[in-house]
Write a structure and sequence with these properties.
With about 290 residues, the chain is an alpha+beta fold. Helix content is about 25%, strand content about 25%. It has a 4-stranded mixed β-sheet, with helices on both faces. A hairpin with a 2-residue loop joins strand 13 (about 280-285) and strand 14.
Length: about 290
């Protein structure tokens, strides 16, 4: 005899009310998790950009010291590439594979030493000339030898200024002295109203080249009867004939050679000292001999 089957009255699946409840919970979780996830992604991208800017800044300094040339706004990226393992796209663009938001190279308008007049238009027209190239004359003064490299880490966000000399000393100083206030996320004072982001996305690499300049003195105790020579880098040999002493500021890493007097000849005498500048130096010529003190 067959026993009739009993059908359970339980429902398999969700009722409309249950589905609404589940969706509400999903919405709550999404509202909590999504902003945190976005912030985490942004912080990771920001940390990566900070690290990359450090590498770029170090590469720029390495280039300056090894070549004794301070590049201008059209040369800086290629200079960094030559001193690092980075590609030109990695140096130039904040996001090489996506948005083409370029990094900006801003020069203090009172930068010294400079072979270019502190005028953005002249800097652009003289783009083939470095900001400064060291010669045996060195620099008479160093002041405001500062450069900013600016970038953003948010895709699609662009910096509201151009590379070159800053529009004013105040505009430069506002960025140089800026630090992110996490309470306000405000950009630098005076920042363009065209900026559609906030300070959270802005990255600033500050480069002060002044500490890399060192004063070097060449003194000739036998002036004017004996006239020795000196040479800095690959620049021409200089006859120390106009005064008993000459001093100037030279970049760290500069290679200096000093030669003895060659009596009536117009060419240098014997090479006596070869030296790489790592700090202030004083070369003294006495008894037909160069010495360092």
């Amino acid at each position: 005899m067959n026993t009739p089957r009993r059908h359970s009255s339980a429902h398999h699946g969700f009722s409309l009310l249950e589905m609404i409840g589940v969706l509400a919970l999903v919405g709550i979780f999404a509202a909590v998790i999504t902003p945190n996830l976005a912030q985490s992604v942004s912080r990771t991208a920001g940390a990566k950009e900070d690290a990359l800017l450090e590498t770029i800044g170090d590469g720029l300094v390495d280039y300056v010291l090894s070549h004794q040339i301070i590049p201008n706004d059209s040369q800086w990226a290629a200079a960094v590439v030559s001193a690092t393992d980075l590609s030109l796209n990695e140096v130039t663009y904040c996001n090489p594979s996506g948005t083409r938001s370029t990094r900006i190279y801003v020069i203090d308008p009172a930068f010294q030493p400079s072979d270019l007049t502190a005028d953005p238009a002249l800097l652009t027209s003289a783009s083939s000339a470095p900001l400064w190239t060291q010669t045996s004359a060195g620099a008479s003064t160093v002041a405001n030898a500062r450069i900013l490299i600016l970038s953003v880490h948010k895709p699609g966000l662009y910096l509201p200024l151009k590379s070159g000399f800053a529009s004013s000393s105040t505009a430069f100083e506002n960025i140089w002295s800026w630090n992110l206030d996490p309470k306000t996320d405000a950009p630098p004072t005076g920042w363009s109203s065209d900026w559609t982001g906030n300070g959270e996305y802005l990255h600033v690499k500050r480069i002060n080249l002044a500490p890399y300049f060192h004063r070097v003195t060449f003194s000739n105790t036998q002036y004017p009867t004996e006239i020795p020579y000196y040479q800095v880098g690959s620049d021409s040999v200089v006859l120390l004939s106009s005064a008993s002493a000459f001093d100037a500021l030279f970049l760290q890493g500069s290679f200096v050679r000093v030669y003895e007097d060659n009596e009536s000849a117009v060419s240098p005498g014997a090479l006596q000292i070869s030296h790489t500048i790592t700090g202030p130096d004083n070369f003294i010529y006495a008894s037909d001999l160069w010495q360092m003190h």
